[in-house]
Amino acid sequence: PERYLLKLNKEYKLPIIILRLAPVYSKDFLRNVKRRVLIGRDMFFYKVGSGKQKISLCSRDNVIDVVEACIESKVPFGEVFNIADDKVYSFNDLSNYFRKLIGNRITIKIPKFMLYFGVKFLSLIFSSKKERLLSIYCKLTKNNIYSIEKAMKYLKYNPKWNFENTILKDRKIFEDDKKNI
User: Fold this and answer.
1) The pTM is what?
2) pLDDT tens, position by position, 39-65
3) I need a surface site. Which of 29, 86, 90, 136 has the fewest CB within 10 A?
4) Which InterPro entries does the UniProt record give (predicted)?
């Protein structure tokens, strides 16, 4: 789809800008983040290997800000920009954020080799799902970091939002309100 859109831009001079988003989250939508650290209807935390794998995420508020910037400013058409929070998160960071939100839970530690063999075994049984299973394995064991330097340079993108001020701020406000009641 990106190549097709860039071709349209080039051939027909259509004003197309492609925003490639890191997994998006908001106060009301945490599924993309939760599934990387919680299982069993949020009953257990889990981590693969050390949990130090890093991931880029993107607050919905940063998406809104960058779309507004694209509309309001002179942005070069026919370009692709990665959009993410300024902060890169480890899976351990994400687990700690969720502990603040939902309380502590048992953490199940899964060695990488066990996940690898599990994925290989399931790929033999469900051969049509092999690519999907390998994708999940990579998402849980490898770093997935988006460089936002190009967006910062050309779009003047300066992400103000991160997990703390998007998600945890409301919890802090709620806790402060409870103290004042």
Assistant:
1) 0.86
2) 988 999 999 999 999 999 999 999 999
3) 29
4) NAD(P)-bd_dom_sf
